[in-house]
Amino acid sequence: MRTFYNWLYSPRSDHGLNPQDNPILLVEPPKVEKRILPSVTDTHVEELISAADNIRDKCIVSLFADSGIRLSELVNITREDIQWHTYTLSVIGKGNKQRRAPFTERTAELLKAYLADNHKDGTIWGINHIGVTKVLKALSLRTGIKCNPHSFRRGFACNLHRKGLSTLDIMHLGGSGTT
Questions:
Q1: 152: CB partners within 8 A, 6+ apart
Q2: Domains along the chain?
Q3: Whether pLDDT at 120 is above 80
């Protein structure tokens, strides 16, 4: 409504209405709640990995937590994207930008175990973004831990901040604000 009335009473409009007579100026905008969004901690990650009933789901949770990658980046990972010697993944993120995302030795072991039994062509998971979201929702219901793909990104950033990394370094590692 605010946008409509501001347009209607705009000095640039052809309606001939005085901008100072705009009734929307007398209306207070509603207060929007600012909720604290869920962030996955290291303890949560351990619980989620323990609760996962297959190696693929354990691998997905561990990789999300280690790397802070986006859902779209995760579902598009291929075998060729994994650099075992540097514990990094090549991912294509927002704006079609390529970057390297780190992972730990634990995730490397899970990935190796998962890939040893799965010989899929193309992406390694065999599920799309809806499938990954369903996996996380099921884990959330099973454990009571609020988790979704973005809660792992927030957890990744929070953990790095606690370890003393600068905001700029965290943005770079998370694939935000890079050139």
A1: 40, 61, 64, 65, 68
A2: 1-34 (no CATH), 42-174 (1.10.443.10)
A3: no
Check residue 149 and report its DSSP letter.
H
- pLDDT mean over 3-20: 84
Q: Is the pLDDT of residue 179 over 60?
A: no
Instruction: Check: CB of residue 90 under 8 Å from CB of residue 100.
Output: yes
- Which segments of the chain does DSSP mark as H helices, in order? 2-8, 42-51, 55-67, 71-75, 105-117, 129-143, 149-162, 167-174
pLDDT for res 178: 47
CA angle 117, 84, 107 (to 5 degrees): 65
Collapsing DSSP to helix, strand or coil, 123 comes out as strand
